[in-house]
Amino acid sequence: MSEKTRKIIELENVNRRYNMGDYTVDALTNINLTVHEQEFIMVMGPSGSGKSTLLNIMAGLEKPSAGTIQIDQRDLSTLSDRVLCDIRRYKLGFIFQFFNLHPILTTLENVELPMLISGVKRKDRVPRAMAMLEMVGLEKRQHHLPHELSGGEKQRVGIARSLVNDPSVILADEPTGDLDSTTGTEIMSLLMQMNEELHKTIVCVTHDEAMLKPNIRLIKMEDGKIISDT
Ligand SMILES: Nc1ncnc2c1ncn2[C@@H]1O[C@H](COP(=O)(O)OP(=O)(O)OP(=O)(O)O)[C@@H](O)[C@H]1O
Ligand SMILES: [Mg+2]
Q1: What is the value of pTM for the model shown?
Q2: Which pick of 58, 102, 145, 172 has the fewest CB atoms within 10 Å?
Q3: Quick check: CB of 49 below 6 Å from ligand 1?
Q4: Is 138 touching ligand 1 by the criterion CB < 6 Å?
Q5: How many Å lie between the centroid of ligand 1 and the Cα of residue 73?
Q6: Which pLDDT value is given to residue 178?
Q7: What is the DSSP string of 128-140?
Q8: Confidence class of residue 88 from pLDDT cuts 50, 70 and 90?
Q9: In this predicted structure, what is the pLDDT of residue 1?
Q10: CA-54 nearest atom, ligand 1
Q11: CA-CA distance, 191 to 202, in Å (whole number)?
């Protein structure tokens, strides 16, 4: 199999049920999904259809009630917490709807944070963080605190941060959800650029039709199920 079509994430018969005492919620039902290296996938569906649960399961942040998840052909259920943590740290990057920036850290420090957690030395962290900030066009905002940035800038910091440990996969949960449509479109273009130029695999959740791009794989969810995959 060529490098381009290598499987990077594979979900088989995945179910996620929440037991709420006297009733249950089936957030995911029988999900089968293979993500290939360098794919750009959009996940759409109404509120409550299981999009965030799907992303969290892919990231190993939540465990399925049934079924298997493989990342790089390794079954997550067989891995120790430490190995799982390393996979999350080096293999996956996250981008959140509400940016999740640390309010008292500057732009530069926010981008440095994942490297700090991974034990990268300061002299290596700063140039790497600056390079990521340059990539998203924010090198001149390095000393700003999050509240001194616009929404789109905050999300660009979020993107820079998701890239610092050079993950192969970026999981984005409604990265444009809190932005106006023009800024949202810019953020989507930046993600497309990360996919095309840096060859990152991207799984991006949205419920905004306007964010859809032609020629990308679109997965539609409803009621915990994948109802179409084109
Ligand atoms: N921790 C939890 N405990 C119980 N039920 C949950 C939990 N997390 C999610 N659910 C339920 O699972 C279903 C799927 O939730 P999920 O957050 O994946 O939806 P979503 O598609 O991301 O929705 P939105 O577009 O509003 O973000 C919902 O019905 C939700 O109420
Ligand atoms: Mg969600």
Answers
A1: 0.92
A2: 102
A3: yes
A4: no
A5: 27
A6: 86
A7: HHHHHHHHTT-GG
A8: confident
A9: 45
A10: 18
A11: 8
39-51 in b/e burial notation, b at 16+ Cβ within 10 A?
A: bbbbbbbeeebbb
Residue type, 112: E
Helices 122-135 and 151-163, packing angle to 10 deg: 130
Any atom of ligand 1 within 6 Å of the Cβ of 207:
yes
CB 200 near ligand 1, within 6 Å: no
Q: Is the pLDDT of residue 2 over 80?
A: no
Count CA atoms within 13 Å of residue 142 on its CB side. Answer: 14
Residue type, 30: N
Domains of the chain, earliest start first: 1-91+167-230 (3.40.50.300), 95-166 (no CATH)
Angle between helices 107-117 and 122-135 (to 10 degrees): 130
Question: How far is ligand 2, taken at its centre, from the CA of residue 81, in Å?
Answer: 25
Q: How many residues does the chain have?
A: 230
Reported as a single tens digit per residue, the pLDDT across 165-198 is 999 999 999 999 888 988 999 999 999 999 999 9
Q: Are 205 and 49 in contact (CB under 8 A)?
A: no
| Ligand 1 site, residue 27, Cβ cutoff 6 A | yes
Residue the block writes with tokens 């530069």:
108
